[in-house]
## 1
Amino acid sequence: MVDPSNDPLASTHQTDDLADRISDRVTAEAAQDARPDDAAAAMAAETPLEEEKVKDEIDIQIDLLKEDDWTVRREAVMTLGEMSDERCVEPVIRALRDGDWQVREAAIEACGMIGSPCVDPLVKLLRDWDLRRTVIAALGKIKDERVLDPLIHQLRSDEFNEIATEALAELGSPAVPKLLVALKDRDENIRKQAVIALGRIQDSEAVDALIEMLKDKDWFIRLTAAAALEKIGDERGREAVKPLMQDPDLVVRMRVERILAAWKKKKTTANA
């Protein structure tokens, strides 16, 4: 029998096997080291594709705004609002002029979804008399302090003060500081609408200022201040309203009587 250790052919096979194993190990390690880079490369390749897909979708929705079917245009506007991309701002703003009121309403909501990028173009559109009501409503959907001064200014307008009041009330507590300042305005329209907005917001921060408004020279402002205090429900307001039972204006006295009765009933129900 031939000793394997002395067999040149067997020694060659062993050397080849060892070389194969080392080669396989090196190849496997190299492949493992390469995987993170490959994965990163794959992700990098996918990202532009995803961005391109989104851009394509925006273009599709913009094109749908030209359709004759108002339901298609409305859905396109809402989709653009949900995307909240800056490229959506201009087409959504244009949709505020749509011939169908339901599309215009959708555009108002879309402005609120997009938010701050819509503020500047909307404020510029306030110059357009025909579009102003719609623009005011859209500004009321955006939680951005830049909308406050333009909306407060619209309280001076007999034509648009009510929609501006609604918009400020919808903004809620962020509008309270500006409205408190508006309570001291010389223009009684500003004071009146500010009182109404504060009553709708129902922020207790306004109680002291509204109590002061119970002394206003305008009977309607005294009345709306009393009503606003009732809505807020602070006991300080209830006590402050009571002297208006002796108000020189009959309408104020009658309304305050009902306000106090409702307040008492509400308190009784709460304690039951």
## 2
Amino acid sequence: MRTAIGVDLGGSHVTAAVVGEDGTIRSQHEQDLEDLRFESVIAALDTTIGMALHDAADAVAIGIGSPGNIDAASGAVLYSPNFGWENAPLGEALRKRFQVPVFVANDARCATLGEHTFGAGKQTKDFVLLTLGTGIGGGIVARGALLLGNRWGAGEIGHHQIRPRDGFVCACGKIGCFEAQASGTGLIRHAFAVAPSFPRSPLLDVARDKLSSKKIRRAAQAGDQHAVAAWKNFIGDLAIGLANVIAFTNPEMIALGGGVSSAADFMLDAVVPIVDELTTMVPKGTTQIVVATLGNDAGQVGAATMALRGGLAAALPVAV
């Protein structure tokens, strides 16, 4: 069975895995990223991929999932607000270092490929993955084909605006993007937004830079009123975005991945009824909303699958 190296390049770390054609991860290596300058990230990738290749010298290709808009032919990162990159020659730099083909694509699209091929969406033809983490990544499968768009930008679901007048400022510069409101970062911002109403909240005893979405969610589950108020606002914004996705794409299934999705039933029980209320142009309840099954491995599995199939455009057949 052939293997490839699947790489998930995130804002805080890079992970490289040896992945088989069946989607099985044979080994993984991870390195923290303390410096997001291009040269430093390339050095971290060089080290991490090198360790993975040591485990599988017969790997036939390397797939990289990177944040941002990616030029498929060259593998250049044309724009990545999270990294502060423009026209960064990621593919070119890595091809100089390794002797096997290197393919680069958006990280969320790679995760969508992984989750659709081997995870929650493997029995579906119309599928959407949303990764809820520091931001919101996404990918859309329509009639069995991964949508890529005119300039490889299809699936940027996190950057449709749901609160353009009174929302939080997004990393992309717009106001009230879905990502700004309903990501893990969005939950934290909701907690600060309602904090004046809860001056004795234990959450305010946590240093501002130490307050995490997980702490807020756990506090909400324990009944803390400050956390409950923040969670309610977060869930409301998440529901708006999900209902919009249903209106845009009418999928069989939306899978929620990323760190925030670890809330599982606590999140689904709250958000699904609101999504049903907001769904109008298709029958209510006909889109399943589930937690993704591959978790943090989806990006690596999808990147390796892309590499094994010769690129993201070749990764899924167009339905006849």
## 3
Amino acid sequence: MQRILIVNPFASGVTERKLAAVQAALPAGTQTLLTHARGEATELAAEWSPRAEALYVFSGDGTYNEVLNGIRADIPIGFIPGGGTSVLPRALGLPRDPARAAARIAHGALRRISVGRFNGRRFAINAGVGFDAELVRRVDGLGRRPDGKRPGDIVFTWTVVRTLADHRLRYEPALEIEGLGRAAFAIVANCSPYTYAGRLGLRVVPDASFEGGLDIVAPVEVRPRGILRLGTQALRGRPGGSDVLLGHDLDRILIRCDRPMPAQVDGEDIGDVTEAEIVVERGALTVLS
């Protein structure tokens, strides 16, 4: 049985030199397959997972998500950081350097982790309805650089500022979370950190773990005077307060929106939703770490 390396050559951190180093670090005979279009990694994972010994993915979080939704067999998967952020391998404790990460997973231990499903679509890291999904959509709307790669952290930070300004630093209750109450937007996590700002992990939902269920944090409303407090809580990993809804280690989350709202999984825009059923598959994935 073969080992397969799926590579997104357009990911922010993928270069010919780094790819060569990754290939050298992986077991001899590993076959490399390059993606050329959105969704192709899903097709490759569906084709090869039933007959491969292991899958490795050198890309960013979007391609990891494609592979996660394509696999058709329970085989070990190694996620090698090749994106601008690459939250998944970093949250799994792998080195940021792709060659070092590849060397680790080539001889790594097997680990069972949970994954989530958002209206049927799998995610490994996080999902969201509202604010964070709007950020993803706006960054996608900026297009890609001439080399085909996404904009970097500076552009993303500026997008956050512009989004808050466009909303005049206000978010009103716009959805209902079954069993918890009304909120302005909802962030669901399968692990912590939820994401990164450069080297800094944002522990928006600090108690979430790959081995548990899903966690959710949802501000009831946002006002200008509360922006700094919410931001500080995210940096310190201490969400809470009477104006924030929290849920920990949940098997199912049901969200009903007052109007169609943007949604994202693993940093990928999945369109607008009026209702979201988010469930956990405990211990569903074998990863190399």
## 4
Amino acid sequence: MSTLLSLQNVAHFLLGKKMIIAKSERDLDKMRGVGELIADVREVLRGMVAPGISTLELNDAADKMIRDAGAIPTFIGYHGFPYAICASVNDEVVHGFSKKIPLVEGDIVSLDMAATFNGFVGDTAMTLPVGEISDELRQLIRVTEECLDAGIAKSRANGRVGDISAAVQQHAEKFGYGIVRDYTGHGIGRQMHEAPQIPNHGRAGTKEKIRVGYCFAIEPMLNLGSADVRTLSDKWTVVTLDGKASAHAEHTIAVTADGPEILTLTREQKRQLRAKASVSATS
């Protein structure tokens, strides 16, 4: 879940006064555990998305999976948010409410979710096609995921938070997409929102220095049209001002001495990543 605009003035003050919390190896082991847990939930929801299913059904499935694993759906009750996931359809950018309305062929849906387990939080998001979608929307989703990858790649010790922001911005701007500026990524750990804020736009070499043990939730949000957004009367759902589609992708990552480690992957995804790295190292 992105840092809320309605709280940004407070957050700028509070986060500006707070130190970024480096995690110990014991902390990181717990973050790996909750990361795998919420990644498993995400992948089950990925397989459920199809024409005819409702976002409320997806929400209820996520809620049950998280609780059955002995964890807590972090979003429920967070500043009053009423659902286990944020489900944002088409022009909804983030913080969308789950509904009984079935998804239809050609929609895209962003699913953002978090769990708290053993005292730590894992936060992840994806945007998925509902059945067959236009090439324009497919590219928007792909580029959003590429922006996430670019930001993760810059999450290295002795770099700067601005390096992450700049990498996301530079890739998004190649395609002319609107980069949502009112909501940001964030530090994460025992709390869902910790220092620092991580905007999806910025200048390399600026902001806080990155150190081993820092954990970030990096989450690009790109609009097909303008970057401008507004909040609906429910005081949560954020939509694009021009009514064009939006996409969102997020991982929780840890900064290690060997580079960034994506925590919100399933065990199988981690195994595949290790196998790919091994092949690359020997080729």
